[in-house]
Amino acid sequence: MSDEINLGPDCQSALENLYLFLDHEMAEGDWDAVHAHIADCAPCLTQFDVERIVKELVARSCREKAPDVLRAKVLTSIRSVTYTRTTVVSSDSRGETDA
Ligand SMILES: [Zn+2]
Question: What is the C-alpha separation between 47 and 66, in angstroms, rounded?
Fold first, then answer.
């Protein structure tokens, strides 16, 4: 039932190299061959698109996470700013002048 799409040997080798292809971690000639195959093969194109989108989402969420050292520094400076602000006493002493 799930065997409606017949993947040829080219598909198999393309899908095996999926991550290498996405990371450009294969020889230029091999990369071109996989690229040419995907351009012509709808099932492979779909598969590669899904993987690429997942990879991009993962990469983006990793990039947005600050390193622990930076986090600690930011938290420390936020605390020190809060502390400084709360210890500043505003003296509002003005005398009444009668003109
Ligand atoms: Zn294919």
Answer: 31
Contact 11, 42 (CB under 8 A): no
Give the amino acid at 39.
Answer: A
Give the distance (Å) from ligand 1 centre to CA of residue 3.
14
Question: pLDDT value at position 1?
Answer: 47
- 59 vs 64: CA distance, rounded Å: 9
Cα 45 to middle of ligand 1, angstroms: 7
d(CA 25, CA 19): 8
What the chain holds in terms of domains, given with CATH numbers, is 9-86 (1.10.10)
More confident residue, 31 or 89: 31
